[in-house]
Q: What sequence folds into this?
C-alpha cells in the first residue's frame, strides 16, 4: 500500500516524476543507454542540462543577467561558497533557525557577520521583524523556510544591499520576484528533486567583488563558465529535477503550486486549532506552508508515542518532529497530494475522539 510520506527531506516526489526517472534509468529517450551511464559531455546529457536550466528560468521568471547552476555539496557547501565569493568586509544575517546558524558560522571565517535579527529567544518560533539592514553590508542573507521550526518568509523583501536566500525547502512553492535577489540557492531534496544536486541562481554583477583567491571548485565563475560541467555533475538528480520542472509546468506553474500549498496548509492548521489534543508551535503570522509543526496539548503529553503509532497504522511516515522541537512535523511540499493531508486531518480527529474524553 502507498504510504503517506510526510518526511522533511529527502521528501516526497510526484509519482509521475519517479516513474519517468525510472524509465530514464533504464533507457534515456530510447537511446539504449541509462541516464546513469552516458557521458555528461555528450549531446544526450547536454540536452538534459540545457532544458533543466531553461525550464528553471522560465518557471521562476528569472530575469536576464542571472546564471543557473546545478552543483554538488548541498546547501551546506553554499554556506561557505556564498561568503567565499561575496563577503569582502561585512555581511548581515537573519538568524531564524538551525540552518541560518550554520550559515552564520561559516560566514565568520571570511569577514564580520552582523546578526541583525534573531528569533532564538523563543526557540525560533517566529520570523523577526523591525530589523534594519545595514547599507554598508556586502549582502544580507536570509533562510526563507525553516524546516525544523515551521516558520517561513513568504514575501520577496526589498533590501538596500544584495539579498541572498537559502530557499532549500520552499523553492518553487510560490511565485518569486527573482529580481529582488542577488543569489538564491538550495538543496534539491524538498521541492525540486532528490538529494545529491544543489541549485544556485546568481546575478552576474555580484561576481568578482572580493580580492581573495578562491579555490577553483569553490569559485562560482568556474561553474558558470563551464555550464555546471567543470567536473562531472550529479547526472541522475539533475534529470529528476528536469522531470519535476516539467511536472510543475504541466500543472500550471507557480501560481498553481501556491494555491495547492496554501490549501493543504490551511487544512492542517485549522485542524490543529480546532483539535483539543494539539498545539501549533510556530507563531501564527510566521507559519510555514511547507512544514507544519505541532505538539501535544500538555494535558495529553503522555500520548505522543500513541499518536505516532496511530498514524503509522494509517500508513503515514515521517511525522516525528525534530529533536530540538519535539512533537510532530507534517512536511507538505509541492508533491504532497491533498488527499494525504486530508487523511492526516481525519486521523487527528479520530485520535481526539478516541482519547479526549
A:
Amino acid at each position: 500500500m502507498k504510504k503517506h510520506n510526510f518526511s522533511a527531506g529527502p521528501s516526497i516526489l510526484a509519482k509521475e516524476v519517479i516513474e519517468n526517472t525510472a524509465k530514464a534509468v533504464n533507457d534515456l529517450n530510447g537511446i539504449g543507454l541509462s541516464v546513469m551511464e552516458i557521458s555528461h559531455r555528450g549531446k544526450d546529457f547536454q540536452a538534459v542540462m540545457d532544458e533543466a536550466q531553461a525550464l528553471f528560468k522560465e518557471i521562476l521568471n528569472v530575469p536576464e543577467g542571472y546564471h543557473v547552476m546545478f552543483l554538488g555539496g548541498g546547501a551546506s557547501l553554499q554556506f561557505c561558497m556564498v561568503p567565499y565569493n561575496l563577503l569582502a568586509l561585512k555581511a548581515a544575517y537573519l538568524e531564524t533557525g538551525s540552518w541560518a546558524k550554520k550559515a552564520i558560522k561559516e560566514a565568520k571565517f571570511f569577514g564580520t557577520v552582523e546578526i541583525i535579527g534573531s528569533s532564538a529567544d523563543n526557540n525560533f518560533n517566529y520570523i523577526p521583524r523591525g530589523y534594519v539592514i545595514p547599507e554598508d553590508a556586502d549582502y544580507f542573507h536570509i533562510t526563507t523556510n525553516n524546516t525544523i521550526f515551521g516558520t517561513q518568509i513568504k514575501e520577496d523583501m526589498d533590501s538596500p544591499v544584495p539579498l541572498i536566500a537559502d530557499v532549500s525547502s520552499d523553492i518553487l512553492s510560490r511565485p518569486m520576484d527573482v529580481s529582488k535577489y542577488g543569489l538564491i540557492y538550495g538543496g534539491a531534496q524538498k521541492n525540486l528533486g532528490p538529494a545529491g544536486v544543489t541549485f544556485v541562481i546568481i546575478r552576474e554583477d555580484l561576481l568578482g567583488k572580493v580580492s581573495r583567491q578562491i579555490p577553483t571548485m569553490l569559485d562560482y565563475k568556474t561553474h558558470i563558465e563551464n555550464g555546471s560541467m567543470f567536473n562531472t555533475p550529479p547526472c541522475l538528480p539533475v534529470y529528476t529535477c528536469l522531470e519535476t520542472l516539467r511536472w510543475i509546468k504541466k500543472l500550471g506553474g507557480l501560481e498553481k503550486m501556491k494555491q495547492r500549498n496554501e490549501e493543504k496548509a490551511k487544512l492542517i492548521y485549522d485542524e490543529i486549532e480546532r483539535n483539543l489534543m494539539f498545539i501549533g508551535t510556530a507563531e501564527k503570522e510566521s507559519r510555514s506552508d511547507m512544514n507544519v509543526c505541532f505538539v501535544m496539548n500538555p494535558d495529553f503529553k503522555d500520548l505522543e508515542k500513541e499518536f505516532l503509532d496511530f498514524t503509522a497504522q494509517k500508513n503515514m511516515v515521517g511525522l516525528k518532529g525534530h529533536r530540538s522541537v519535539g512533537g510532530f512535523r507534517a512536511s507538505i511540499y509541492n508533491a504532497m497530494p491533498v488527499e494525504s493531508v486530508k487523511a492526516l486531518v481525519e486521523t487527528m480527529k479520530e485520535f481526539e475522539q478516541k482519547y479526549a474524553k
Remarks:
- The CA atoms of residues 31 and 44 lie 9 Å apart.
